[in-house]
## 1
Amino acid sequence: MPELPEVETVRRTLEPAVGRRVRGVWTSGLPLRLNGPVDRAGLARAATGAVIAGVRRRGKYLLIDLAGRDRLILVHLGMSGRLRIVPARAPRAPHTHVVLSLTGGRELRYSDPRRFGLVDLAPAGGREREHPSLAVLGRDPLVERVTGAFLHEAARRSRQTMKSILLDQGIVAGVGNIYASEALWLAGVPPTLRGVRLDRARADALARAIRAVLRRALERGGTSLRDFVDADGVAGENADYLRVYGRAGAPCPRRACSGRIRRTVIQGRATFHCPACQRR
DNA sequence: TAGAGCCTGCGG
DNA sequence: CCGCAGGCTCTA
């Protein structure tokens, strides 16, 4: 479900949890795809009694810092994960797998029907990249500079298509299936173009497109195609502004382009582009 | 470097 | 009933 703009939207709406103390921890015991059953004892040891010092994001991962503790809580929402801050007495949603009860009568709850996500512990104190999931991440476009030169260099070393390169979290961290198609369309780059064939001018355009697409989506609170909501349960508005994703058969929204959006499959993922204006 | 696999839910 | 879903990992 969530890509960088959605995860960042969740991060921002988690801010009210900062400064609250963790009073207790509950877990469902069911395995999550990315790290198996949540380490309940470890989580309790790391978090119980600690004040939440901040919530950070790195690619599609959220990092919950705990004041004075040597571990932080790492969360990935997978396809269907949600983090919500709710009153402790609110009924628990189905598929809730982790609950942190907080001071002030609130709970921070992680629910995830498909269980493709992750809730884990990582070293704190600036050593979070020792966690294997964070160790392999590339540049986060909102944190570091994703420039044309950087993309050009990364693409040149790859034998993959540009669509796959954008989905590679080890290169650009945070772009997922929606924004990969959107950025390629905005830059006029065909999704099937091989990385080695991406010239520097198009790399510049693509770098700009990635930043623009992510920033605009974030301004609109993310894309809610079906069920994405932030930590307050509010859906994002960006679905209305998608230019190609999910719009197969529609006229290309580019000015003076008479093409129609096509749906193809690249590496098993739906891909949308305009054959008329995304050309080699 | 494709493809399968992991899960549940939804819409046609 | 079938296909599809915003992610990621492991396998041949």
## 2
Amino acid sequence: MAGRRSVVEASNTRQSILSCAADMASVEGLEGVTVGRLATSLNMSKAGAIGHFGNKLELQLATLDFAAEVFRKEVWQPAEHVTAGMPRLLAICASWMEYADRPAFPGGCFIAAASFEFDSRPGPVHDALAAHMRRWHAQLVADAKTAVEAGDLPASTDVEQIAFGLEALAARVTPNRQLYGDERAAEHARDSMLNLLGQRTRSSSSLA
Amino acid sequence: MAGRRSVVEASNTRQSILSCAADMASVEGLEGVTVGRLATSLNMSKAGAIGHFGNKLELQLATLDFAAEVFRKEVWQPAEHVTAGMPRLLAICASWMEYADRPAFPGGCFIAAASFEFDSRPGPVHDALAAHMRRWHAQLVADAKTAVEAGDLPASTDVEQIAFGLEALAARVTPNRQLYGDERAAEHARDSMLNLLGQRTRSSSSLA
DNA sequence: CCTACCGATCGGTAGG
DNA sequence: CCTACCGATCGGTAGG
């Protein structure tokens, strides 16, 4: 083993560490990832694992960014080039629910879990998470506004309420499936989303 | 200070410990409550604080039950004697959103946070939490069924979807308020709930 | 990226 | 309900 590695190897190692940290954090929380167990799980020394980041806070921030990038690629990127407004809202809901149904991390959606872990804990992780979520929230609000202007949502629509509703429904998929074994959680979320968007099709009850 | 206390005093102490533990857990998670900091916060010794429960797991289970009882009293009890079906669903949503808007614990709704902390962590806390939530879920489903039978919801209604949607919307109030300062989170949740229940009143936008 | 180490805190217990 | 203590693990660092 051992010795210093090349820049490329170091970058690969860094990604491996972040992937492992994100997996652990999705199950035990971002605060629950300890340097010791992370290193053991990677077959590395503690100094080797944490050295790429400096300290635990920086590791947490890097892990959050890693998971946020996965989330962006899986949920937002597929809908990026869809027509703004209702078409894009529906595309986002579709990719979001596919992701919620088959999450990239063993403990389920990382972002949803982190938003409950750090909502009442001030600090850099809270702030970084809020910044990510504000961007996504603004995107939902913008598309809802466009949908109103296009006449796809009633003029009386509260676009903030729409965004809130979609976020709430998406986040609940993991806990409801994992807590009381509701295998249809993503389907319920999807149907409720369509309901909030006025696309009430109670019969179209299959995913994908 | 010190010395053993009477049964009544011990019971009071026990409640004080649980109240303090629930406050801490609502902010830092149930796993984040350490015996040492709990004791310090209570001006007690570690042995004094944990002695009432035996070990940390038993403390966690007792804290969960404590918070669940607060939740039951605040959310379910006010609606207990309301007519089953849609009237009771609306009453539950009302008390639920009042509670979400003014939660009993500094970190917000304890139950919602715990359901994200323990959804992917097997063990006694997961199981106890799931048991509580299953009871509440069954209550929502039962009232939704009654509402369908009474004609207050369409015959095609998926009652599981209704329960899922209400749970999702209620749980999201705390994180959205605390992460990006949405003071209208409870209001958005309430309006979305009414939407899911077919009581779409986009103009009635004031709480309580 | 490793070994070897630091002080602090963890959950828990013996004994009073 | 306290003091005093246990081994284990925490985050972090020096030095190579």
